[in-house]
Amino acid sequence: MRCPFCAHEDSQVKDSRPSEDGAAIRRRRQCEACGARFTTFERVQLRDLTVVKKTGEREPFDREKLARSIAIACRKRDVSPERIDRLVSSVQRQLETRGDEVKASEIGEAVMDGLKAIDHVAYIRFASVYKDFSEPGHFAEIAETVGEEAKSEDPAPASPEGQGPPDRLL
Ligand SMILES: [Zn+2]
Question: HSE on the CB side for 167, CA within 13 Å?
């Protein structure tokens, strides 16, 4: 594996262990030239997925890009990088069973399904970016759905006039 720091062609594997519940092998490597350490992951890939965008443009599925967009949605939330990696792997496996080409919208839906069960704030953030602010109706719909789920755990009814003491504090 080439060193990402100095581009030297060889690196030594220092440590190798299962990761993501056995779905991946994580290897710690050290560059023989500059001594820099870095990590690589070995994962099963069933297919070379192609993503078809809304515009009809095609591009190769990029796992790292997907992981980054999920990580942004999870910023400052209590979601570990390992949890994000497992979500990405699970989304990738779902997509691989569908064929060689997947629509960008299918990826978005699969990620939202996963995030919904992990962290509702991350879910709303991802949904808002994915649905695109040019479609505010969608964002409102999703924010409402999540709001209703949160309310169902909180039995205090809202006062019809929107005033009066908040029941939940009594
Ligand atoms: Zn190096």
Answer: 8
